[in-house]
Amino acid sequence: MAAIIEFKKVNKFYGDYHALKDVNLSIDEGEVVSIIGPSGAGKSTLIRTMNGLEGISSGVLKVDGYDLGDKKTDLNKIRRNVGMVFQHFNLYENHTVLENVMLAPRIVLHRDEKENREIAEKLLKQVGLLGKEDSYPRQLSGGQKQRVAIARSLAMKPKVLLFDEPTSALDPEMIQGVLDVMQSIAAEGMTMVVVTHEMGFAREVSDRVIFFDQGQVLEDSHNPKDFFKHPRNLRAQEFLSRVIDH
């Protein structure tokens, strides 16, 4: 498989604060990669660099063949192919569910309106929200909003889907519905990078688990089940002992 995301000695500074430290990382097409680690580790900064929401300070970051460190790179072109699902949904409150899903393909891709609607309805069915087309975000639960956000990202037919802690703002009973949708997308072969606190998802659905702390990749495992039983890195051992079965 070809690498679709490549980090080579990537650094990110906020003033004097060193958020990403010499990150070397390669993600292949079709992989489902979970990034775990303590709060404040730099996980969200890492994933936000992958579609240019955060710039890098040094090193090389290539996404879908484009160099994100090159000022001539058109970030909007990259974001067409790299979808992002945020922690707090970021839906348009004054648009219906259906309009939220149809808006970007209409404006950015100039997709035919009939086709756009058919794709949007199909995606809403996929995420379990058929029948909610005419609802507004304020009428939905948090879990439903997040599933609309996922459908909206999929409507652009991206090559990569990024998730930045997609369940952390949800009530516990809402989480599983979102994780089920994410698992169904993963099963279809979508390249996914997921910053998550959901250890069950990381263990059962991921092809790889990356343990990230203090701006660095401390462990990169291609065998998630083995990683959760026997992490090699001492910091990862400490982290998992606190989060598993608590």
UniProtKB/TrEMBL annotation:
A Pfam cross-reference name: ABC_tran
InterPro entries per UniProt: AAA+_ATPase, ABC_ATPase_HisP-typ, ABC_transporter-like_ATP-bd, ABC_transporter-like_CS, MetN_ABC_transporter-like, P-loop_NTPase
Source organism superkingdom: Bacteria
Organism per entry: Lactobacillus delbrueckii subsp. bulgaricus
Similarity comment text for this entry: Belongs to the ABC transporter superfamily.
Gene Ontology MF terms: ABC-type amino acid transporter activity; ATP binding; ATP hydrolysis activity
Taxonomic lineage of the native organism: Bacteria, Bacillati, Bacillota, Bacilli, Lactobacillales
SMART domains referenced in this protein's UniProt entry, alphabetically: AAA
Name recorded for this polypeptide: Glutamine ABC transporter ATP-binding protein
Transmembrane segments: none
Gene3D superfamilies per UniProt: P-loop containing nucleotide triphosphate hydrolases (3.40.50.300)
Keywords: ATP-binding, Nucleotide-binding, Transport
Residue span, ABC transporter domain: 5-239
SUPFAM superfamilies recorded: P-loop containing nucleoside triphosphate hydrolases
